Amino acid sequence: MKILLLSYSSIKFDGRLRELITVCNLLGDCTYITNDFSSDTEKHVVPPTNKRNYKSFVKFCLNFAKQSADFDIIFADNRRALYPAYKIYRKQKKAKFIIDVRELYLMQEVGSFVSKIGCLLEKKINPKADIVIAANQERSKIMQEHYNLAKLPLVFENVRALSFPENYQGLEQAGISEEILQSLAQPKFKLISTSGCSISRTNDVLVRAVSQFQDSVNLYLVGSYGIEDCAAVENLISELSLNNVFIIKENLHEGELKDFIQRCDVGVVNYHMLDLNNTYCASGKIYEFLAENKPVITTENPPLKNMVNKYKIGVADNQYSGAIKKLLDNYDFYQKNVEALDFRAKVSANNEKLVEEIKANL
Q1: What is the DSSP string of 85-126?
Q2: Comparing C-alpha atoms, which of 1, 63, 9 is closest to residue 31?
Q3: Mean pLDDT in the chain?
């Protein structure tokens, strides 16, 4: 089968996209267009570097498809790829249409005009797909009703693991300050959150919780999530006179993030519960931590809480402090449970499961 996958995301920073490409390669001969700046294979097509806006991306995808032989499957990765993918699908009458609806945005829960347009597109186009894919069971059930789908969407969990690229030179070459690198070598309990300084994800609450463990715990907030949020967290760190909270504003590449996680002890996975998309979060970050054999502290969103309680691989706690103490006191118990489940091995099984389900539903 010849497959064309469209994504407005970047392979470098998007773990779900990387796994979807793997799935498509298992299905057949996959060509994929992404919003990256470079490509290392002829099957990975990227737009010209001087045309990086969404309008140019759509035009590029349509022109590429027009100049190519017909495809058997048109695969849209999320809502920004939905419009060009659907236009291409309409012109290729024999093609099947697959949509990965990784987010769960509803009209009444979004504020911006662009987001509302995206919701309208999904409402109109998703029911016309041959296969719709959701990121967890909870989302699948909600989507079937919301989009009035004839069949329950397939479920493709965000099971993924980070890898080192070839010629990886080490975290020391990532532009991280010497102070942070030295702190990673300290004999302290190290927590890492990759939601940066996000206040909506309650990282201010996390900082206050860590302030109770200054002598025994370091916290690393990785990623940029808004100037105002970063300023608020920096002010909080100053107000509490903390020397055990570190902010890494850069978006680390896959290998750098893997390296950083390996030097820590626990991953923090946090989402708010102000809308369905976050309440029923489909976290890929939790699997990135687990694949490195790190227990997790999570917020009490149903999918996260159910998972950590079922497998005893961490603690769900919206206030964090109780979870930190529990992990400090019982780290070996949780770490051995994570190790025994071998989450890295689950990545291939998850991909192969989706391949078989797609074949069965085409």
Answers
A1: HHHHHHH-TT-EEEEE------GGG--SHHHHHHHHHHHHHG
A2: 1
A3: 95
Range(s) within the chain of domains with CATH label 3.40.50.2000: 2-156, 171-345
Burial grade of 44 (CB within 10 A; 0-12, 13-18, 19 or more): middle
Per CATH, the architecture of 171-345 is what?
Answer: 3-Layer(aba) Sandwich (3.40)
User: pLDDT by residue (tens digit) across 210-225?
Assistant: 999 999 999 999 987 7
Q: Which of 3, 54, 47, 56 is nearest to 25 (CA)?
A: 3
CB 334 within 8 A of CB 295: yes
Decide: helix, strand or coil at residue 6: strand
pLDDT > 90? residue 166: no
Mutual angle of helices 321-329 and 203-210, in 10-degree steps = 50
Tell me the β-bridge partners of 307: none
pLDDT digits (tens, 9 = 90+) for 74-128: 999 999 999 999 999 999 989 999 999 999 999 999 889 999 999 999 999 999 9
Interval 291-322: pLDDT, tens: 999 999 999 999 999 999 999 999 999 999 99
- Taking domain 2-156, whether its CATH number is 3.40.50.2000 is answered by yes
